[in-house]
Design a protein that fits this description.
The structure is a single chain. The strands form two sheets. Strands 1, 2, 3, 4, 5, 8, 9, 10, 11 and 12 form a ten-stranded mixed beta sheet that branches. This protein has a two-stranded antiparallel sheet with strand order 6-7. The chain is 34% helix and 19% strand. The radius of gyration is 20 Å and the shape is globular. Helix 1 packs across helix 2. By secondary structure, the protein is of the alpha+beta class. The longest helix is centred in the middle third of the chain and has 21 residues, at 172-192. The protein starts with a strand and ends with a strand. It contains twelve helices and twelve strands. The protein has helices at 26-41, 66-73, 92-106, 144-150, 157-168, 172-192, 223-227, 257-262, 288-299, 317-326, 339-342, 349-364, and strands at residues 5-11, 15-16, 50-54, 83-86, 111-119, 202-204, 209-211, 246-255, 269-278, 308-311, 368-375, 379-387.
């Protein structure tokens, strides 16, 4: 089977809700990262076989195959290049990467761009629900079978996070402490320039936008400050220990060995192993645990073999219980902060985390990195990449 090489991985800075990127059309955000990949790598855009983008709330500005519209809005990619938009909820762009890698590994395609976009300021989460109710706050799943099987009419992410807290016996203090750590690590990484290679600053003179770094990092975040926040649903989860609403885009350039040689490019990593798993939709957010176990079994590796891991901080309890169940090390987890500090732009998060992980593997000269993301409905993607080169 052919190898799927990661030649490059980039992202925009994370824009705060109603912040610097809130006026940028998501199609233009997608076109921006597409053009940046072409400009940074000097290959023929006409030879791209497909563009696969993730997006969760596919309505309004994000409707009608956002990925194709991003190609049409691009300055570098011709209209002859096709594109498709996928929805695996919070793992959508991670799934896009899986599809891209599978296409290259199968030998059917040579150059695929995988990525994702989400403008959570312009298109609010849950806006694509038929009755307009926000997802996680009354979204109806009125199918008789779901009600029969699970005794509910809808699944609620915040309640799922609270159930995780209860099941694993976490305390509010533990959760808040992890949230503070996320901000501290992100602040340190930002100040040290660790994000410089992955971030392509968004500059748009026409709209007077000049966003160089992530907007969500709170330098003053403290346990005392978080302790004063009111719970979302009378439990331990607050706005301070949950991921931030964020606008952004990310993309990964995936190539076959033949394409890499044709354009004289130097790959940065290879997609080593991929897995996906389903889990309890009521707790909903525990999927990274079985997905990671499945991934490691497929790879014939243990968690101790992995140098770094990114487990999406949809809510702080998610990576905390993942650590416990995998017997993993906090020192290797989300070392430059996660969704609590850097934001979670839904459909863009998967390839965003890949870009962060890849850059940190290179900085440390480490070899194996793992990404796992929980997804609405109780599924999760897991991806293992292997850095190549010296």
């Amino acid at each position: 089977m052919s190898k799927a090489y990661i030649v490059d991985a980039i992202r925009t800075p994370g824009g705060k809700r109603n912040g610097s990127l809130s006026s940028v059309h998501p199609v233009d955000l997608g076109a921006f990262v597409l053009d940046a990949l072409v400009d940074r790598n000097g290959f023929s855009a006409e030879d791209i076989d497909d563009v696969i983008f993730g997006c969760v709330t596919q309505v309004g500005a994000q409707a009608n195959n956002l990925a194709r519209n991003a190609v049409l809005a691009s300055k570098r990619i011709p209209e002859s290049v096709p594109a498709v938009t996928v929805d695996r909820q919070c793992g959508s762009s991670q799934q896009a990467l899986h599809f891209a890698a599978q296409a290259v590994m199968s030998g059917t395609q040579d150059i695929v761009i995988a990525g994702g976009v989400e403008s959570m300021s312009l298109v609010s989460i849950g806006a694509n629900v038929a009755d307009g109710k926000a997802a996680g706050h009354g979204q109806p799943y009125s199918a008789t079978g779901i009600n029969t099987n699970y005794g509910v009419d809808w699944f609620h992410q915040t309640i799922g996070a609270e159930l995780i807290v209860e099941h694993w016996g976490l305390t509010r203090e533990e959760i808040d402490a992890f949230a503070v750590l996320s901000h501290q690590r992100a602040m340190k990484a930002r100040d040290a320039g660790y994000f410089n290679r992955e971030i392509v600053p968004y500059v748009d003179d026409a709209e007077s936008i000049d966003l160089q770094q992530d907007e969500g990092i709170r330098d003053s975040c403290s346990a005392e400050g978080l302790a004063n926040l009111k719970p979302i649903s009378n439990g331990a989860i607050t706005a301070g220990n949950a991921s931030q609403i964020t606008d952004g885009a990310s993309a990964v350039l995936v190539m076959s060995e033949a394409a890499v040689k044709r354009f004289g490019l130097k790959p940065r990593a290879v997609v080593h192993t991929m897995a996906i798993a389903g889990d309890d939709p009521i707790k909903m957010l525990t999927g990274p645990i079985p997905a990671t176990k499945k991934l490691l079994a497929k790879a014939g590796m243990s968690i101790q073999d992995i140098d770094l891991y990114e487990v999406n901080e949809a809510f702080a309890p998610v990576p905390l219980v993942w650590l416990r169940e995998l017997n993993a090390s906090l020192d290797k987890l989300n070392v430059n902060g996660g969704g609590v500090a850097l934001g979670h732009p839904l459909g863009a998060t998967g390839t965003k985390l890949i870009s962060t992980l890849l850059c940190e593997l290179e900085r440390r000269k480490a070899r194996y990195g793992l990404v796992a993301i929980c997804e609405s409905g109780g599924t999760a993607n897991a991806t293992l990449i292997k850095r190549v080169g010296e």
